Amino acid sequence: MAPFCITPPLRFYKSNRGIRLSNPSRRWLYNRLFLGGIGAFGCYLTLRYRLAAREASRNPEDGNCLCSSDMVDFLRYMPFNLFSNLAGRLAENESVPAWVHNWFARAVVYWYALDMSESGQKTNFETFQQFYVRDWTPKARPVDAAASVVAPCDGQVLAVNANVESTSLVQVKGLTYGMRSLLQDTPPPLNTDTHRRVAVVLHMRNKDFHHVIAPLSFACEKSIYVPGSLLPTTSAGYHWIPAVLALNERLILQGRSSDKARLPVYMALVGSTLTGRITLYMDKRVRTNYLDPPAYAVHSPYASKPVVARGERLATFNWGSSVVLVMDVPKSCKPLKRPGDVVKAGEALFQF
């Protein structure tokens, strides 16, 4: 008797070898190719960003990792502003339980190894935004009384231009951007026999306090809100995106020093990715981080020209960003910091 065996089931199918790529049955292939292309492009952007971060840490004055103008246009079309606005709303949303906000705060403290002994409030924050804009203790940020100009904020020095001889500022080696495009104004002519123009760029990191103080006593004549993008202004972004400071949303304070020389002083508070808004204490009417920003710069002149004392609180960033300081100083001025240095608000920045 023949052994019992199971006959395999019959399968009727058509080989895919003869199906053209335009056939709807191969739609799965298009989806995988599309998603794979997006993933590969994302990996490429991440790699370029990390290479720029490496250059910023090892050679902070070089500019070998700058992207092309086409890439800048692509980044400006990405919804950084919308994402930053939504992140800011979530960070200060009181409908979210407080323990969720505090969990994220503890995660940031652990990840960045924050020194909470310098904070006025250490725990039990109502929102994550309250943690991010926490105040420092009075003794944590003393203002150097012997310094001519002090650091306006905590952060890392991205660039120091000790002698600006033209109307452009040097971002990195081989790349400049116009002062007028950044400040929305052209500084007055400079007497090169007795004075020179200096500029410094500082970036507030996630581990830093996000308050801005006056680097010297000056009379504020005008504030200018300039709408723009919210591209990353980290040390990596500074070495990757050309003229990123002139492309981003910013708030500019224009004035003159309160001494007899009455030298021009410019401070540009530049927004960045995840920057919720900028709070200006001398003028609470100023708004930033619009979802539908105006198509023009908003100038707000101050007839009273309020005098801001050195070390006085000027503004607060809701999440980190960058500060650009441009000013005229005596020719004997000596910069005390170099690109890559880490500073704290109130430390000596220039001496003359």
From TrEMBL:
Top-level EC class: lyase
Domain of life: Eukaryota
Cofactor(s) the protein needs: pyruvate
Any GO CC annotation of this UniProt entry: mitochondrion
Enzyme Commission number, as recorded: 4.1.1.65
PANTHER family named in the record: PHOSPHATIDYLSERINE DECARBOXYLASE, PHOSPHATIDYLSERINE DECARBOXYLASE PROENZYME, MITOCHONDRIAL
Protein name, per record: phosphatidylserine decarboxylase
